[in-house]
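Last lecture ended with a question: if I hand you only a sequence, what can you say about the shape of the protein? Today we answer it with a concrete record. The protein is META domain-containing protein. Below, first the input exactly as provided, then the predicted structure, then a couple of comments.
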Amino acid sequence: MLKTSINAAILLASALPAFTVFAAEPQLICFGNEPSWGLQFSDKSRAQLLLPEQKAVDFLGQKTHLLALKEYAWRGKPVTGKGGEAVALLREASCSDGMSNTQHPMSARVSLPDGQLLAGCCRVPKPAKDTTAKPLTLEGPTWQLGSLGGSFAGIAIDAAKPVTVRFEAGRLSGFSGCNRLMGGYNLSTGKVKISMLAGSMMACPEPQTALENAVRAALSGTLAYAINTEQLSLSTATGAVLTFKAQPAATLEGVYWDVTGFNNGRQAVVSALPGTRLSMVFEQGQVHGSSGCNTYQASFTSVENRLSIGPLLSTRMVCPADGVMQQEREFLAALESVKLWEIRDGLLDAHRADGERVFNAVVSAP
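The predicted structure:
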């Protein structure tokens, strides 16, 4: 798979039309530090050299593939015709850029016309996202509950811990106010038939339990659905209507997270003690929040789905309520063990390197 993606990026052959200026998006970007430099390939014949405080230089050349060594040798001359050749040796091998823990798929050695020898890594840029707005469908978005109607109308909705539901490929999943929910469904014209729901079984105080029971009761059997702009309406057989809004794309940073469960260090994921709040906000390389009694802060790094937190600093207030200080110690210890994260159906799910869950969290109000 790696070799295929690299070949697709650099061996475009005749797939791209000929052009006279460096205008195409780069298909492969090679770069390095000390000094900072970049060599961008738009197809197999064109490259652009970027050096600090110098004008970009466009090169026209050709490559050869050294199959046995898994190397590409690219040799080119400036488009202007002035200056000597640049030679780049690109090797299929894991390469660290020396500035982060990111591993790139190729290493690069570049010899410039003036005699400079550069070394670094190469990456394949992600394709540009299609920003064209598309009509919403039932399947795909994460839907956040906005209102409950009918016999459920008097039940309070907690904006700090939003109820969510997601329909995808016959699988329903989400958060029902206290626990995760999951089940199956079938679609027909304007209707969705939901099978019996299952989920986690953490105990929660009121009014969360009442809300969860109402949501689970409503999301059963066959419901009629309709989508108007960004709002989803689900109507039960008794005439109760639930409305949902499509949540924006999930992001780790810049939002408030409320922890719904954390690893207490005894191979158990438990909810926060009643009357305490465990929270976190990730922004500008720092994470901070409430650990139940005190506030804490720490630096963090996140590359793709990897996450590292620490060292942690905390205020030193003592809370006399039973179990609160122990919960705080266990929660902070859990945070420092995080290695992996993902967001699915509005739930932030963090794990250790061995796959053991560290915590779950949902988007909340400040």
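Comments.
1. The chain has three helices and 26 strands.
2. Residues 179 and 200 are 5 Å apart (CA to CA).
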